[in-house]
Amino acid sequence: MRVKSLPILIVGAVAASLALAGCSSPADSSSAGATTGYGPLRVVASTNVYGDIASTIGGDLVTVDSIISDPSQDPHSYEADAQVQLALSKAQVVIENGGGYDDFVGTLLKGANNSKVAVLNAANISGYDQKPAGGEFNEHLWYDFPTVHRVVDAIVDRFTAIEPSGAKTFTANAKKFTDALDRLESDETNLKSSFSGEGVAITEPVPLYLLEASGLVNKTPQKFSKAIEGGTDVSPVVLKDTLALFSEGTVKLLAYNEQTSGPETEQVLAAAKSAGVAVVPVTETLPSGKDYLGWMTDNLNAVKAALTK
Ligand SMILES: [Zn+2]
Fold it and tell me: How is residue 119 annotated by DSSP?
């Protein structure tokens, strides 16, 4: 399967700034899409994470445009361009994360004049309460393997409805994918049996589903990760409590979101390093040269290595 980059568009950007709610500071963003495959079934995914999954299931029968695919770009501060609008106007299936993560998809779709498109929303598919009482909904659902499994099932159903002749291909590809997902879930279970209850720190909730499924307990003050996610200031007291996690040996690892860093997260990173606490870098989008399953395998291996350090 060939992968080509969408040409960077110089024509005026449509739709002003469609900043996302959620994590991150306002970083500047150059829009970078990617197209995978040349099949008849046209799919647009909000990020290359869902784009890769859709490509894996659809194989040669689909063409997938991923709106965000640049690992240096923070999906939370994305600005759309006309190229994306065009892809959305022709899409038969759109895959979005939902939960407030990629609201720009819905906004652009409204202007895309595409009445036939089927929208798959991972947050809705997850079945999770998106407004949990007294808590925060973690929208980074692609780190949650049970949800990814459900999304794959929904993709197969939708692809098959549109292209019934591809049913066998979609089902076979999905089976291979979900078998691998099941293995990742057993890796989490194995980690849980050895390390249940160990403390971890995060800069943002990005990998939290994976960490919690592995039995690990997030010890980061909620006010810290919330401030980082929302791009607001961290109070000195909260920062001090966060830094103490490392000097006092409360946590075994720091999961560090490489896609949104700032002075406070860098201080936390330095504290982890100087205390000899393992750092597990995580990202919002697929690193280049990786597919979803390889990426998640790497993530779990990195967590395991950090715990056994
Ligand atoms: Zn995020």
Answer: E
Task: Report how far residue 244's alpha carbon sits from residue 249's, in angstroms, rounded to the nearest whole number.
Answer: 8
Same domain for 172 and 49: yes
Same domain, residue pair 16 and 125:
yes
- Same-domain status, 237 and 159: no
CA of 129 from ligand 1 middle (Å) equals 18
pLDDT by residue (tens digit) across 142-189? Answer: 999 999 999 999 999 999 999 999 999 999 999 999 999 999 999 999
Q: How far is the CA of 137 from the centre of ligand 1 (A)?
A: 12
Span from the CA of 87 to the centroid of ligand 1 (angstroms): 24
- The per-residue pLDDT for range 227-264, each reduced to its tens digit, is 998 889 999 999 999 999 999 999 999 999 988 788 99
Cα of 72 to ligand 1 centre, how many Å? 13
The alpha carbon of 225 and the centre of ligand 1 are apart by a number of angstroms equal to 10
Q: 40 CA to middle of ligand 1, Å?
A: 32
Pair (171, 192) in one structural domain: no
Question: Of 56, 60, 122, 67, which Cα lies nearest the Cα of 91?
Answer: 67
Distance from Cα 223 to the centre of ligand 1, integer Å: 15
Does residue 299 register a pLDDT over 50? yes
- Residue 84 CA: distances (Å) to CA of 14, 147, 290: 9, 26, 23
